[in-house]
Write a structure and sequence with these properties.
The complex is a heterodimer of chains A (119) and B (392). Chain A has 119 residues and is mainly beta. Chain A has a single domain (5-116), classed as Rieske [2Fe-2S] iron-sulphur domain (Rieske Iron-sulfur Protein, 3-layer Sandwich), CATH 2.102.10.10. Chain A has one helix at residues 23-26, and strands at 5-8, 17-21, 32-36, 41-46, 60-62, 65-67, 74-76, 93-99, 102-106, 115-116. In chain A, strand 3 and strand 4 form a beta hairpin. Chain B starts with a helix and ends in an 11-residue tail after the last helix. Chain B has 3 domains: 2-97 and 226-293, FAD/NAD(P)-binding domain; 101-221, 3-Layer(bba) Sandwich (FAD/NAD(P)-binding domain); 312-390, FAD/NAD-linked reductase, C-terminal dimerisation domain (Enolase-like, domain 1, 2-Layer Sandwich). With 392 residues, chain B is α/β, with parallel strands linked by helices. The longest helix of chain B has 15 residues, at 279-293. Classes of the chains: A mainly beta (119), B alpha/beta (392). Chain A binds chain B through residues 16, 52, 58-60, 67, 69-72, 85-86, 88-89, and chain B through 5, 8, 30, 33, 37, 43, 50-52, 55, 279, 283, 305, 307, 314, 359-360, 363-364, 387-388. Chain A: InterPro entries: Rieske_2Fe-2S, Rieske_2Fe-2S_sf. Chain A: This is 2Fe-2S ferredoxin. Chain A: Residues 1-26 are annotated as: Disordered.
Chain lengths: 119, 392
């Protein structure tokens, strides 16, 4: 699926937090977390940690990383790469852009780069 | 875990020589689930491997399901259980530990939990209605008790200390955690077993100090671990309740390193640390030993961290909550229930934090400690202050 989904306006996701897009809205199998970093970038990864059942959207978001709230594995928000144990498997990324003042998620389309808020 | 962590770190640091992992049980797996999801049956053996088979091929790590029979550091080799000899310029001992046996008459009847086979045997014993006596209410004992309750067993939990875990999570959370057992129908007894006697129909009678006795279809002991240090001792390496190592995992033999539960840190002044038995310590000591084996300085690590789960509650702690030597405890409570405890030093720095169900508080605390910040005690105590706002 490559059609974009309107996730909301940029300020609906507070900086340093994330919003989860459920499979029934995205059309892909896994929930997706759309992260808004403190530097104003948007990224999206699969929401469920690759280690165990935990929502990365509820994790600690700092810089361009998210730390899982369950066992503290960290993932690079840009690339989905796992940065530390216990997870050993990367997270799939999804493309997010900011278009006409809306955050748009492309479920299943790998990210090429971060979408920035207008600056 | 320590061996896997070391192998992974060796490759991350650019080591490109031969790397062999002796792992009698096959692909290394994660132990924390053995008393949690794997024991409950919600995670299977494939789910708990540390990395899939491809990872070992991709990282050039050969896994042999062989045991090391003897170390021959002077010959730069290791003798395997099958009689083969393997050349090795550097050897890492990550043989872990075994459960401490229940040292009372009849104590050999007690099940213990350390590896996958133990968890399988334990799961079979935790039948609905089975009378289970768990000896030791530390993290393993509490997790096994919680799993047993989940299976519908009738559990008696025996520990002389009430509540346990005070140095790890502080008095208030230790009390709250221990009370969860009673809330889930577990009988907690502050005592110790003195004898396990055979009873009718394959059952046992656990006699406790003080004269009472509890009938049991299964007994589980979670009373600590004993390091598997014989391999090192036989090779003439210094051992004292663990293989003695420095911060780089180096043992008294320059070709041999140790990491994980089998290792025990000796400080530069000669003082011996308590053996660190948590998951994270195995990861970190494996990484440190990898650096040591390559002749590189050991990485700096922050305060130690652990997690545990019982009755669906997720417990985490970082640093120490042991207020006996220094500091004061600040509690965060809501509706009369403690959510988190913080130990503050006299100069205001944070020495440790523990929480039941608020993992971001622990992530905030870890950062506060790593950065040497002095948090506002009122904010720590206020449940309306979000974790991120504690860092300023």
């Amino acid at each position: 699926m490559s059609e974009g989904i309107d996730v909301g306006s940029p300020d609906e996701i507070e900086e340093g937090t994330a919003k989860v897009v459920e499979p029934e809205d995205s059309g892909v199998d896994e929930p997706i977390a759309v992260f808004h970093t403190e530097s104003g970038c948007f990224f999206a990864l699969n929401d469920t940690c690759t280690h165990e059942e935990a929502s990365l959207a509820e994790g600690w978001i700092e810089g361009d990383t998210v730390e899982c709230p369950l066992h503290s594995s960290s993932f690079d928000l840009r690339t989905g790469k796992v940065l530390c144990l216990p997870a050993t498997v990367d997270e799939p990324t999804h493309k997010v852009t900011v278009e006409n003042g809306r955050v748009v998620l492309y479920p299943g389309v790998p990210a090429d780069d971060a979408a920035r808020t207008a600056d | 875990m320590a061996a896997f962590s070391a192998a992974s770190e060796l490759r991350a640091r650019g080591y490109d020589g031969a790397l062999t992992l002796l792992s009698p049980e096959g692909l290394p797996y994660d132990r924390p689930p053995l008393s949690k999801g794997y024991l409950l049956g919600s995670e299977d053996a494939a789910k708990i491997v540390l990395a899939p088979e491809d990872w070992y091929a991709e990282h050039g790590v050969e896994v042999l399901t062989e045991r090391a029979a003897a170390l021959r550091p002077s010959e730069a080799s290791v003798e395997l259980g099958n009689g083969r000899t393997l050349g090795a310029d550097r050897v890492l001992i990550a043989t872990g530990a075994r459960p401490r046996p229940l040292a009372v008459p009849g104590g050999e009847a007690a099940l213990t939990l350390r590896d996958r086979a133990d968890a399988d045997a334990l799961r079979a014993a935790l039948a609905p209605g089975a009378r289970v006596v768990v000896v030791g209410a530390g993290l393993i004992g509490a997790e096994v008790t919680s799993a047993a309750v989940g299976f519908g067993a009738e559990v008696t939990l025996v520990d002389p200390i009430d509540p346990p875990l005070v140095p790890a999570v502080g008095e208030a959370l230790a009390r709250r955690l221990h009370e969860m057992h009673g809330e889930h129908g577990v009988r907690t007894v502050a005592s110790v077993p003195v004898e396990i006697a055979a009873s009718d129909g394959g059952a046992c009678l656990v006699r406790l100090a003080g004269g009472s006795a509890v009938a049991a279809d299964a007994i589980v002991a979670g009373i600590g671990i004993v390091p598997n240090s014989a391999l090192a001792a036989d090779a003439g390496i210094e051992v004292d309740d663990g293989v003695l190592v420095d911060a780089s995992g180096a043992t008294s033999n320059p070709g041999v390193f140790a990491a994980g539960d089998v290792s025990r840190l000796r400080h530069p002044d000669g003082a011996l640390a308590r053996r660190a038995e948590h998951w994270e310590a195995a990861v970190r000591s494996g990484q440190a030993a990898a650096a040591g084996m390559l002749g590189e300085p050991a990485p700096e690590f922050g305060a130690p961290w652990f997690w545990s789960d019982r009755y669906g509650a997720h417990v985490e702690a970082v640093g120490t909550l042991d207020a006996r030597s220094a500091g004061r405890i600040v509690l965060r409570e809501a509706d009369g229930l403690p959510q988190a405890a913080f130990l503050l030093a006299d100069d205001g720095r944070l020495l440790g934090a523990a929480a039941v169900g608020f993992p971001l508080l622990i992530r905030a605390a870890r950062r506060i400690m790593d950065r040497g910040l002095a948090p506002d005690p009122a904010a720590l105590a206020d449940p309306s202050v979000p974790p991120r706002k504690l860092i300023h």
